[in-house]
Request: fold
Amino acid sequence: MLRWPLRGAAVAAVLLALGLAFAGEAAAKSFSLPQASVVVSVKPDGSLAVQEFITFAFDGPFSGAYRDIPLRQGEVIQDAYVEENGQRYPPGASAELGSSGAPGTFGTTAIEDGFRIVWHFSALSEVRTFTVGYTLVGVAVAYDDVVDVNLRVWGDQWDQSLERLTAVMVLPGPATGSSYRVWGHPVSVRGDVQRQPQQAELRAVHVPPHQFVELRVVFPRSLLSSSAGAKVRHEVALPRIVYDEQQDARAFEHDQKRIRSALNHLPRTILILLAAALLPGLAIVGAAYWFFGRERVTGYDREYEQEPPSDLAPALVPPLLRQSPTVGSLEFTATLFDLIRRGRYKAAPVTTERSVWGGLRHEEIADLELSRGENAPLLDYEDAVASVIDAILTTGPERLSHFRDRITQDREENSQRFKD
Reply:
């Protein structure tokens, strides 16, 4: 089948089919849509007489259905009816969804931005065709040169696919020439359109679920005897309408070329898709690293500070870093070197020979030789450290590498000093 030019949003989306709402038994049930036909007759005043012939193939028990027809401001629906096999259903039944009613009856009610028709019947695993009819006022647009009727003849709310769709728009009189145009939308649906002097026809097959179908017909304004049933706009609209349709057709063809190019260059397409998927994540990781994962520039020229940054006692630094009040060898060592810095003890650099490999080898290591310095006032915990060091230095200067052995020689007394 031929495919028709693509168009964007419908100008008058008034034939939306929302599906079925059924009351009945809890047994498993379903239905399919073998075919549907829509006949739209444009009256001489511009109003539209619509007849929908919808065929259902029921599998299981069903007792009712509904149609929601959206209406925009200025659009009115009149003379709604439901019939089957030429027999019209009497009105007056409940129009509430899920309600029950006598088979062969229907009801109507206004809803937000639309109109609802509910009909009741009794079906059990059979094929039934229902006719839903109504008149639409204010949908057709009468311009100075042409009348534009853009009608959605199948809605996108159906959960089921439609095997075959036909739509006919009957004009109020015969038309020919460039002012008589017919389009079908969208191009993705398999179908075609035909233009005859008295009517325009649309055919489509295998309409997917949730897919709308539109029929747009433009014909000379002179075919209307009045504009009482249409919107009136003072504009020469045919060139603009044709231009819009051509632009939509070009946009579709452009999209098709891009799709074909992507399929013909599949490795490149895969790389582009991978890049599109990975780049946002990499950007997030990079931003997180930039703001939170790297050392901030401070303008300071030193990598390490070579002296305490404050007057805080060195013995307090390790517990603050650990967030723990306990103390040990680190605090003892920090206090010792602080006393050396303050002159309480003197430290001279020396080298000490140390045996390794079980005494088989010896090596020289850097060491410090400590001796008594100047007396200075000490805090209580500093005095406890000084008492340990003074006990070692009573016999004279001693190398720092020997301190551990000298402390263990007087284990009991130094243990209490260390705890202090």
User: Anything to note?
Assistant: The chain has a mean pLDDT of 84. The longest strand covers residues 30-42. The chain is about 25% helix and 35% strand.
